[in-house]
Protein 1
Amino acid sequence: MTDLLGDAASPALALARKWRPRVFADLKGQEHVVQALSNALTQGRLHHAYLLTGTRGVGKTTLARILAKCLNCETGVTSTPCGVCSACTQIDAGRFVDLLELDAASNTGVDNMREVLDNAQYAPTVGRYKVYIIDEVHMLSKPAFNSMLKTLEEPPAHVKFILATTDPQKIPVTVLSRCLQFNLKPMPPALVAQHLGEVLAQENVDAEPAALNLLARAAAGSMRDALSLTDQAIAYGSGRIEAAAVETMLGTVRRDYLFDLLDALAARNGDDLLEQARTLAERGIAFDAALQDLGSLLTQLALLLHAPRAIEASADAERMQAAAEQLDVETVQLYYQIALNGRRDLPYAPDEFSGFCMTLLRMLAFVPGSQNSAPGSIPLRGASARSGSRSLRAESALTAPARRAEPALPAAAPVAVVPPVPVPVPVPVPAAAPDAELVAPEPAAPPAAELVARESTPHAAWDWLTVVGELRLGGMAKMLADHCELVSQAGDAVTLRVGEAHKHLLDLAYQDKLIAALRDKYGATLVVTIEIGAAADKTPQQVRTRIKQARQAEAVVAIESDPFVRELVDQLGGQLDATSIQPLGENP
């Protein structure tokens, strides 16, 4: 790797200029383009127009200049220009008369293009080819593009066009069809960090590997941006590049803070979580960047949980492993989605700090299996006469203490009611006696609590419904477990049955995942047999369906037996729509 200038003045140049590639071998990350052009030059299969596309800083203009040297090197058309002849040195210095670089962003009109094309008919002055490099070609006007078509289709033999753009979609297809198109890829952070290390080693600048990784990620695939940020980091750190200084310079969040946030979330400690948010605020860290970096960390955690080989070694590998042990795959995915939505909603929050805090609290509230989000049996309340209001609320439910010796209706899940029938004229409702007791009717169906206890106790030692709920399964493997019935379980031998209607779930991959999850929970010696048999009636899916139906029946009974509801129906002459009643905590 060689720098652009070798004299004493070269250190004064910006790194992006000083280390600009001068031959194909120095170009990083674009091997697919280099190979195609090198083969074409070696075999003499030259095209009259090339289109280089890609995001900023990936080497479009640099590649165009190298190609111009390959075409005009005094040693002949070659893929390895000498770099010392008059043509090569003048192209490097930007003084070659037969190389014309045109910025289409400032020369958009047809008159500018016509002047270029009129000059193209003349033979080159000193070189072999007259090369036109048109940067940001998509900025040309439609008339300017139209004026190019004839020349692009039948150009003079001594003319080569090299077009470069960051937005090829804006180029007319009539122009695209006349060019060889090469797409330059954004460079991966690992490659950028490696190149920065090589450059800094020759510049005699000490740099921490973690700092180079930060600069590489901030460059977003652009080598030019990476070198410019490195220049800034050298100035910021007085000749030494440290990770802490780069984090401060870039305004990124230290990974320690992010891991502290995850620890607080895993511990479900709201006070600690808000304290970490205040720490970020005191350090002046942008909350949008904090959510972005948190999403990036969650992405790495998801990879660690699903594909550990995809994770590169890092200084915080121990904390990554600790976080992965505290969070399951579903929780990581949920946190990631909430972080994305939090970034989107941040501009609409009263202020960024409150928006950031609400995003963290949302993660705390909706974590799977948490006390806040788990559906539970909440005591049912009757309408209170002391409140002075008899309006029904969505979260209201009814309890029915027993007045007779017969068993009372157990507490049902809270119920939600659709809005009552609109009443054009208010009807006065007589005041009810305070603390009135409600008499529960005979239950029409077994109570949900009874049904849960009865359905979740198989004849074997295992509680299969509970076992399936504790397994870390997803997708089709989870569906297979939900449609299996526990036939027998004795020691390490377990037999499951799948009904004929669901035998399509017995794919070997799904079976392997289910068996692996059971062995992770109960030991590697477990022997699991899955058979196809008569329709199973005690699968977790069927048990949950029956429990849901029982809860729905209890909810309907609780609403229909409420005196206030009956009185309201009688006065309005309406009819209660049982399908609109739903236990609280279930999706409509």
Protein 2
Amino acid sequence: MNQNDWITQAGRLQAARKAFALVTVLRAQAPTSAKPGDKALVTADGQIHGWIGGGCAQPAVVKTVRQALADGHPQTIRIAPTDATAERTLGDVLEFGMACHSGGTLELFIDPVLPATQLTVFGDSPVARALVGLAPRVGLRVALVAEGALASDHPDAATVINNDDATRVREQLGSNGYVVVATQGRRDLQGLKAALAMAPGQLWFVASERKAGVLRDSLLAAGEDPDSVARIIAPAGESIGAQTPEEIALSVLAAVVAARRGRTTAQTQVPASSTVSASAPVLAETVAEVPTAGSCCAGKKKDEAAAESAATTTAAATPATPVAIEPASVKKTCCGN
């Protein structure tokens, strides 16, 4: 066996998005066939590529590798000539008994190498494009799904799928992971259907509360699972007063990072008050937006609420007087208002 076999195999497994651990011999006390610095790549199914000694150490190594791949934490282990069934923790070192009678002691460092977390972005909107550009900078592997999308237009995306058919998307990308629907008025309903088909760990929708509510009703009318529909988080993005597409993408990315790191925020869990109604469905691909926190008009919500409160107080204290009101002008924004 070539002692550097693990280098070639590591590239293959990373290309296939398979998890493995790099195991390095830190210390070796004779008699052992391994030497400090020896390395091997070990997979969850027990395949060993490289050299970390004979078969005596392998059961303990494979067991620890599986645990490291499950929790993502590196681990130092010591295999010593004690009771073969012994297993104890000494500080930050996990010690195993040697399964053979040859003696010798090995200390190894097990470092899990996990595939980059995948973020799937639906849509070819300005927010979607900005998110695809930002996400790889924090170690996310991005897949973009948009009808008619060209890979050449999205160089930061590892995968570009130009068809948002739910079955095709799931076949190509699998299930779970993090998903953001940033269609922003173009094939919103289809994008949400395809996103739900992936059974994502978290699903964010870049839209106002009103628009999200209307589309939830449409999804229910189309037969989608109510529990899955209720898990859609909208408006998407941490509250940072985002207004431009790039700022909105940054706020959404912050929510994704929080979820990946196990942080609990309003953006990483479905609010307890979240309800989905199956009544009065509106079957629409595009619904006019109403500004709300998390949308491109997020920074205005607080001011609008204050103004509304002040108006209510004034109205309560002053007799009503008929006033002619000029029609309000409408300013188009990135969220369709």
Protein 3
Amino acid sequence: MRKSIFDRLEHWEQKLKVILALFFSFLIVLQILLSQEPVRFYLSFAERLEGVPWPGGKSAVAFSLPTATGEVKIRVCSYFSFPRAVVLVNGREVADFQDGEVSLKVCSGDEIVIDGSAYDCQLVFQITAVSRGVVWPPVDYRVTTDASQVSLGKVWIER
């Protein structure tokens, strides 16, 4: 005999109850797992990125404010060439005095340091030229290193 429509609906109702019970049980187990620290950490994309350097050294910001840039030329006054005397800009080595003079591209706020610690004698360095708008360091400014590092200070550029 054929089953009535109500018998069929009752059969589907029982299946639906089992599916809903399994779904809510799965949901509760999933929430318990996600509240545990290791699982939450590995499933969270934002937390996995935290502390990871941005590839290419570029900023993640889509735009940047224009910064004032300029050029500073420094030469050795004492002798002709000092290949182990280096110029640091913001703590990074950018040039050496192999040719006796260096030209630096700098931004406003950059700190220029001359490292003459490789030599035991006094070395005198002079700013020979600056681009337009550079207020500090001024032209003809001299610094002397005595087997040490000497800061020229932070670059100041008027816009």
Protein 4
Amino acid sequence: MKKSILIICLLAGFTSFAQSESGFGLKGGLNFNSNGDASIGSDIGDIGSDSQVGFHVGAFGKLDFGTLYVRPELVYTNTNSDYDGDKFKMSKLDMPLLVGLNIVGPLHIFAGPSLQYILDTDLEGVTINDVENDFTVGLNMGVGVNLGERLGVDLRYERGFSDNEAEFVGLSGTGRIDTRPSQLILSLSVKL
């Protein structure tokens, strides 16, 4: 009996999925980002990062439930920051799980957690010894517009929540960089 009810529920779910605006697609765009402050040695103090442009590419799925939707994404993200002329680069996999609300016509808002896995970090002229946690958690929130049936544009803000620092050794001694992103993300998406 329990198996029959489960099969009926699954079939009903697949039928509603096939008849809705649900689907999957590709996305990409630009990040306007900075990571946190860097602290170098005990005498110099903290150095703030200047925002730089990065990029992202990835895929998304969308489950539409009328005015609400769920949109999981898997995105490769490259961020850049500048610390007094020293370039810090980080590449990571972002896995946002967004819940959205269709507002009016093509306009929608969304928010949700983003799981982030750091793939690589690089600071010019410096050896990075250790990133505290390769896996971090952040928040995405933003607004989007659908441009017809297949195209979409969204603007979102992402902020990392988990404390995470990279330790490095340079000419001025040892230091740490806060690797939590704080970025505006502009994306173009294509539904396949």
